[in-house]
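User: Hi! I'm working on a homework problem where we have to compare a predicted structure to a textbook description. Could you give me the structure for the chain below?
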Amino acid sequence: MTAILKELRLLEAEHARGRITDADLARRKSALMQEIPDAFEVANTDVEPKPASENNSWDMLVLLLIAAALCGSAVLLIVGDIFMAMTFGITVLAALTIKLFLSIED
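Assistant: Happy to help. Predicted structure tokens:
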């Protein structure tokens, strides 16, 4: 795409200097525009649709709960304070849940 934009700028510069006529500029611009593929055609050929899966969200939620429990257990073993471990586990769970919801939106 940048190569085509560069070509367009060069054509405009040549036209401004008087090296090419208006008709020649229009003809060469239209030839350049013909080379650009349609965005709809490119999108349909390059990307295959992903199947929607509701189980993926529930699986991710279970993994998040396990991760929060592991983080809380690690803090409990290291620090020895159950309230600090619960706070850390809930914080990790909240952060991972936000990440899950952001990934569901996409």
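For your comparison, note the following. Residues 4 and 32 are 7 Å apart (CA to CA). The longest helix spans residues 55-79. Good luck with the assignment!
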